[in-house]
Amino acid sequence: MAVYTEVSDEDLRSFIAQYDLGAVVSCKGIAEGVENSNYLLVTETGPFILTLYEKRVDPADLPFFLGLMEHLSARGVTCPLPVRGRDGEALRSLCGRPAVIVTFLAGMWPRRILPEHCAALGEGLARLHLAGADFPLRRANALSLDGWRTLHAATHGRADAVKPGLAAALAAELAELERCWPADLPCGVIHADLFPDNVFFRDGALSGLIDFYFACNDILAYDVAVCLNAWCFEADGSFNVTKARLMLASYMKVRPLSAAELEALPLLARGSALRFLLTRLYDWLNTPAGALVKRKDPLEYLHKLRFHQQVRGIGEYGLTLPAGAA
Ligand SMILES: Nc1ncnc2c1ncn2[C@@H]1O[C@H](COP(=O)(O)OP(=O)(O)OP(=O)(O)O)[C@@H](O)[C@H]1O
Ligand SMILES: N[C@@H](CCO)C(=O)O
């Protein structure tokens, strides 16, 4: 469970006194997520989410994340809205951590992913990309090539303890991606972590997106590749081409992908697989025994990386190149 920082009743009462939310009715740690401490906070005026930002969030990035949620929400993308206190500020400090209250989104993330979820996700992702186009703040992707190199250096020495040969496989893949990572694809604001547990559905329809704390400016099709990995593989490791085709086709109805973006997908999917393999590996090796957080399996992403290394064309993702493309 992701509650790294315990908040005492007294600290919470004086924190909430800075808002017009009424008195606290209850505040319970949420047993999901791995990055930040999240609480379901119920006050006299309704439910909210209280987040204390932990390890991977640089406080200097919070204006980008919070501003982005406000920007997207104003353009019809349903996502949490930061709640401002009486002083007009949304971002403050609690228990020595940066902390924010955001609005509560109704809905549930899908525990069993169906093809129709993938179709809705594709459309939602494309709408997010269009809505983010005029967001004025910028944030580089801290978990792209340079960040992977740093994580690689921090995990290299112990990777083989997780799986023999993993260290060499990671070194070779990182070197290859550094050599041929695309430099001229369309960029914009991406979510960068749009896994099923960050997408809520209600009555069968996508009802909202959460967890913008990896959002940044990067290659738009990289976000599509993150979703291919997170949504289109089955629990047994097999790739579900029907889900991929539906996701990509729905995305392209809202924001068509160019031939160059489509051709780059296998490479971008390898990069995305390496990103989650490295962050999971780092956490695997560095999460203290007894921590109240469930470590995610890095090797799931080694398997996905291997899959994309074998892909020879986007036909394997259920698509054909547009007419006239090389
Ligand atoms: N605005 C919200 N409305 C409703 N529930 C929310 C909201 N924000 C977070 N939650 C709940 O808290 C859980 C964890 O939130 P979140 O995914 O943001 O945490 P995290 O630690 O950043 O996780 P991750 O590992 O996905 O990066 C979600 O799965 C959801 O159940
Ligand atoms: N979505 C990430 C965890 C949060 O970054 C993963 O599954 O590894």
TrEMBL record:
Gene3D superfamilies: 3.90.1200.10, Phosphorylase Kinase, domain 1. This is Homoserine kinase. SUPFAM superfamilies: Protein kinase-like (PK-like) (SSF56112). InterPro entries: Aminoglycoside_PTrfase (IPR002575), Homoserine_kinase_II (IPR005280), Kinase-like_dom_sf (IPR011009), Pseudomonas-type_ThrB (IPR050249). Residues 27-252 form the Aminoglycoside phosphotransferase domain. The keyword DNA-binding does not apply. Its EC number is 2.7.1.39. Belongs to the pseudomonas-type ThrB family. Pathway: Amino-acid biosynthesis; L-threonine biosynthesis; L-threonine from L-aspartate: step 4/5. Transmembrane segments: none annotated. It is an enzyme of class 2 (transferase). It catalyses: L-homoserine + ATP = O-phospho-L-homoserine + ADP + H(+). Keywords: Amino-acid biosynthesis, ATP-binding, Kinase, Nucleotide-binding, Threonine biosynthesis, Transferase. PANTHER family: AMINOGLYCOSIDE PHOSPHOTRANSFERASE DOMAIN-CONTAINING PROTEIN, AMINOGLYCOSIDE PHOSPHOTRANSFERASE DOMAIN-CONTAINING PROTEIN-RELATED. One of its GO terms (molecular function) is homoserine kinase activity. It comes from Rhodocista pekingensis. Signal peptide: none annotated.
